[in-house]
Amino acid sequence: FNLGDYTVNVVVSDDGLPPQTVTIAIPVKVEDDAASFTFLVGIISRDGVPEGWLYDRSQDKKTVVKMGDEVKVADVSGQVTEIGKDYLLLKHGETQHRLDLGTNLRQMVTAATAAKTATEPPAKL
């Protein structure tokens, strides 16, 4: 498929006498998943204020976020609550999500999961 708006026609028929048929048109919008193309590509401090740089590869677009900013990309949304040296935290509802440098918005994990993984000892081979 190409990106864009389409109409899908669904036709349903029965075996009755006389046979009955119903057709319904369903609008469908085919688009890229911007969240899977949007990566945390940089974190800097400008005049003592940390910034996170989100880059949408599908649209060649950089978005700069600061503490307290709202982020909405596709169905991913949240408020920036922390910017670390290689991650940022987004709060959605009551849940904190961690986005690590170099990962896309679909690869975020809950902050609790990220903390647990960071404190687990390495596996022995």
Structure, explained:
It is a single chain. By secondary structure, this protein is mainly β. Helix content is 10%, strand content 54%. The protein is built from two helices and ten strands. The protein has a five-stranded antiparallel β-sheet. The protein has a three-stranded antiparallel β-sheet with strand order 3-4-5. A hairpin with a 2-residue loop joins strand 6 (70-73) and strand 7 (76-83). The longest helix is centred in the last third of the chain and has 9 residues, at 111-119. The radius of gyration is 22 Å and the shape is elongated. The mean pLDDT is 89.
How would you describe this structure in keywords?
mainly beta, 2 helices
**How much beta, percentage-wise?**
over 45%
Strand order of the largest sheet: 6-7-8-9-10
Largest sheet: 5 strands, antiparallel
Order of helices and strands: EEHEEEEEEEEH
Low-confidence runs: none
Instruction: Using the CA coordinates, give the radius of gyration.
Output: 22 Å
The separation of the N and C termini measures 46 Å
Structural class: mainly beta
The overall average pLDDT, rounded, is 89
Shape: elongated
Quantity of strands, as a count: 10
Task: Report the total helices.
Answer: 2
**Roughly how much helix do the residues carry, as a percent range?**
10-25%
Topology overview:
Layout: E1 4-13, E2 21-30, H1 34-37, E3 38-46, E4 49-56, E5 61-65, E6 70-73, E7 76-83, E8 87-92, E9 95-100, E10 109-110, H2 111-119
